[in-house]
Amino acid sequence: MKQVVQNYKSGELTLLDVPAPACRPGGVLVRTAFSLISTGTELMKVSEASMSLLGKARARPDQVAKVMQSVASNGIGATYRKVTNRLDSYTPLGYSLCGVVEEVGPGVDDVAVGDVVACAGNEHALHAELNWVPKHLYSPVPARVAREHAAFGTVGAIAMQGVRRGEPQLGDVALVVGLGLIGQLVVQLLIALGARVIGVDPDPERCALAERLGALASGAPGSDVVDTAVTTATDGHGVDQTYLAAGGSSNEPVELAARLSRDRGTVVDIGKCGLNLPWNAYYEKELDVRFSRSYGPGRYDPSYELDGHDYPIGYVRWTERRNLGCFLDLLATGRIDVAPLITHVRDFTDAEDTYRALNDGELRALAVLFRYQEAEQAPIAKAPVAANEDGAAGATLTAAPAGNGATKGIAVAADVGDKPVIAPAAGHPVGLGFIGAGNYASSMLLPHLVERDDVALRRVVTTSALSAANAQRKFGFTKADTDVDTVLSDDATDAVFIVTRHSSHAALTCQALRAGKAVFVEKPLALSESELDNVLTAIAESGNDRLQVGFNRRFAPLLRKAKARFGRRLGPATVRYLINAGSLEAGSWYARTDLEGTRFAGEGGHFIDTVSWLLDADPTSVYACAGPHGRDPQITLRYPDDSTAVISYTTSGSASFPKETLDLTADGRVLAFDDFVRASVYGRYRSRSPRMPGGRDKGQAAELAAFVDAVATGSPMPVPVTSLVTTTRATLAVEQSLRTGTPVTVGP
Q1: What local confidence, expressed as pLDDT, does residue 40 receive?
Q2: H helices present in 430-464, as ranges
Q3: pTM of the predicted protein model
Q4: Which domains occur in the chain, in start order?
């Protein structure tokens, strides 16, 4: 299918062929009929993309600060790869459309195939022929509303939320600063509520349009027309509310709001303008400054938008979906008229020329619609493979004897139905498939693999069609898709990488093992004992134990050299490992502990595996204690030879302090490890490594090399399954120990 995308690094904007999205549970697949260009928000992104790197940095100082923090924590090399990956990727455009439901996912019962819906969201209502839209981001379109008008639903909900934040009452006088698309809708909504409206905009055509739509008067900022209208309508007291729907960096809108507001009036920011509030003016009138966040309550809350958990109407009357539906109802009754706002309707195939003309100023427009082909076309997407309770796809697979996989040059190691566990024939590259191609995969794994002559990147599968297309473009995958079954059923794919969110790791691992693939799954392997049991069952029944978990630290060159310098250990050791993990960004999916597990459940296996590798043993017991709400856990591990390790996983430290520091003490010697930058061994003589050139090497390249070699040759996997399982059990035992306050015995 076709989708409008832009490369933020080069500024290139194009109509790209991408895989069709799959219809996932909790949402619907929508074939677009009309999508609306937001000439404010979207053109701002288009303009930023055409800037130099310095210009981009000046436009987004918040992102520059994040980059500098990443350099301090991860080094220049890793940060450079991460930033380059993000910049040199196609990003989507669009967030407001109307289309026809083509497929209904499980858990959706309020629409059917063939229904017309208005859709919202900058990840789901894109300028694309097909979109998967979760249930709280679409609303059925009343029969009396034209599809091209319903495409205004999202921007209408944005305007409506802004008006709700102002809490206007019958007879109020409101000032709307900025008469672009959002401003014109705010004008109409206020009039529908019984308010009197005065508009402000430097464009006389937009002022005239606002008056035709019902405004008392409109004029340029500071004009006598505006001042006179405010004085007349308010008896000189000033307006009750000011709605800032303007863009740009000018501070004029907030200064105008202060001058024309009444005592204790309200100022609502809907757009993105300068907000250097003149303190005296706002203080003397005690103005109430409010912000309107997008479409309404629920926006940016993944529990609402993605998981479908609604807010009770008794507590949250107007959510983003209810705002969307309300705006459509106003269109149906004629209280709102968007027809005068439409300045151009262009075919979707002309998207590139349309954006170019808008950005160059050749096309002066208020609202531009893309018109797509007829929505009543045959479906072109396929639903994802349904999963059984044990995580296997499709029918139950027959059991086979356990084994360790194929040897070099021998194709079959263990039969799994008609899907044998295979290794590539001698001399042939290892065929790799990726499930997930997010920032970690694209910056820390794929750059190492794409350079290898003994690897063939076969297929990449992601939930987002554009993510798959980006990975295919940058790394040369043969195929890109959104259906997991395409990679699992590909006979030319020898190994599958699972680089998705934590909650999906175990189920996808089971599917891939049963499909006869060697599996590299990022940590964690499982989030519960039952998930781990499912993985072990899949191994036992399929006879396929070709499994590696992404515990990369044991492969880090600096740490391996330090261990070698320390030498053979005779007596028990004491290990102290401090992880200065830091706080999460607001909205991070890591914080969704109900679905993705705790941070330690997701990351802790890294550190337990590192200690176990240093001690050449797996832990036998775990004891954990923590601060309030389970924060900053301290984990004590005991090993068979009475060695002990204390892992301190903290989130309250300084970002300027090293992220990982480790000390191992035994036999009169100390190994001191400083965040992949320097390692020292203290004994009779001190051995200190030089600072690592080129930044921190956390072992990903060596880990991948070991995995690929094992798949290619059929030799044992880099880490025994028993160790992977014990590390996972020890990680899960931390939560159990925190609950019970007692040590937990860990078995293989």
Answers
A1: 77
A2: 439-440, 446-449
A3: 0.81
A4: 2-152+301-371 (3.90.180.10), 155-291 (3.40.50.720), 397-549 (3.40.50.720), 554-701+727-745 (3.30.360.10)
